[in-house]
Amino acid sequence: ENSIIKNQEGASRTKLVFSTFLALLPGFTGGAAISYAAVALPFYLDPENGSGMVMTEDQASWFVSLNSPMQMVGNLLSGILLDKFGRKRTLIGSSLVVILASAILSFAPSYEVLLAGCLLNGSAVGCVRPAIGLYLSEISLVRWRGTLGSFNALTPNAGYLYGIMVGSLLPVRIFPWIMVGPSIVFLIFSWTLYDTPLWYMKVGRSLEARQSMEWLRGQDYKIEAELKELETLLSSDGIKVDKIGLLRKRGFVLPVLILCCLFFAHASVGADTLSYYALTLFIFPGVSLSPSVITIFFQISLSVGMLATTLLPQLGRRPQFILGAFSVAFHMVLLGFDNYLGISSTIPALNYLPVVLLISFGLNFGIGIGTIPWTLTGEIFPQHLRTYGCAITVAARYVMQFIQLKLFFLTASSFGMSGVYWIQGCVAVIGGVFAFFLLPETRNKTFTELENIFEGNKEGDPEKN
């Protein structure tokens, strides 16, 4: 298999970069779409907004939190769509639905219609993320897979930051049209893209798989080794998947359980609650910066951290997640002590301590925990079952996110913000310990080597032995 990595050194990168850029655009829109609730909520809570629609606190809580379960629905739906229609057409269809949802949000005459637009928007965004992850992992060079996976995690955060910044400057009714701009660009140029060689091979379209590989890698690239690997992997399981057998397959069940646990940690260590409730939480005595400005700095720190992972190609997924988890835990413990003891609020020289800790937390989350689970969605599942694995694990993440967001106020009122921070820190420690004992290394492994990891073949993961 190492011959494939060596052979790829002579592959063209131009069309791979072009395809990656286009595929990431719907993910950017997805991040901006998620920011819509945060941007629009203050407007719809204002009794004098002039729209004729004013939300109660109960309506507002559903308006914000329902996005997560609808993303879960989209994740699960993507498992069917990605197999039946392919990665490219799923992205196209989801982008069209996001645009339709934006039109509903823009013209909604009532709370019920507005909520319908949010539900449609969330489900479409839920389809987009797994589609991008699989598309990028399947067109990527082996040594680029981690970098492209980092961009997949970074892009929605960049879109969210874009939404927060631009949305605060525009009327609420106009913002939905601005946030879908990247998806419109994707749709205009999507006709130039092929679907992935793996999907073409999986559905028996071997000629198009060859054409796709030649287009991606260049005319002078020797594609036979890569195509042969895909052929071998797909023929070993058979094209039709037995759904009952799928649930019992060791090579599928183990990575699903491991990645679900990593995503549970990913959603529970504080990044989501700090992002969604930023305008409520980021109010500190003695700090002259407004909550919206601190929110922008926080989102920038998350994005910069995730971008930094693209500059660390030699760092394996496993140590990156473990070190990131313990670093996040350290920051949460400090935030908890500061909140509990009132250090920054009573010592003027330390007024900005929580702001510094939040920005540092964002950087460390982005560099460590932030990108790894998303990268693994395109690596650790068997080829025939990867759409199901990706859909299930990403959906599990949004279930946990929904629970976190709905229980946040209850947890904060019961244990205080210091208790919330310490609970999140404990979850990060548990996640790091879990990864230390159970997460295998996947960096620089071919598809064949990746499949061997969970099939009981220990030679597939030499770095862990």
Explain what you see.
The protein is mainly α. The longest helix is centred in the last third of the chain and has 53 residues, at 386-438. The chain has helices at 2-7, 14-45, 57-65, 67-107, 111-139, 145-167, 175-179, 181-189, 197-202, 206-217, 224-237, 243-248, 250-268, 271-276, 278-281, 291-309, 317-341, 343-346, 353-367, 372-376, 386-438, 447-453. The protein is globular. It contains 22 helices and no strands. Residues 458-465 have low confidence and may be disordered.
Defining traits:
465 residues, mainly alpha, 22 helices, 75% helix, disordered C terminus
* Overall form: globular
Average pLDDT value? 87
Low-confidence segments, ≥5 residues, pLDDT <50? 458-465
The tally of beta strands, per DSSP, is 0
Please summarize what this structure is.
With 465 residues, the protein is mostly helical. Helix content is 75%, strand content 0%.
List the topology elements.
Blueprint: H1 2-7, H2 14-45, H3 57-65, H4 67-107, H5 111-139, H6 145-167, H7 175-179, H8 181-189, H9 197-202, H10 206-217, H11 224-237, H12 243-248, H13 250-268, H14 271-276, H15 278-281, H16 291-309, H17 317-341, H18 343-346, H19 353-367, H20 372-376, H21 386-438, H22 447-453
Helix pairs in contact: 2-3, 2-4, 2-5, 2-6, 2-8, 4-5, 4-8, 4-21, 5-6, 5-21, 6-16, 13-21, 16-19, 17-19, 17-21
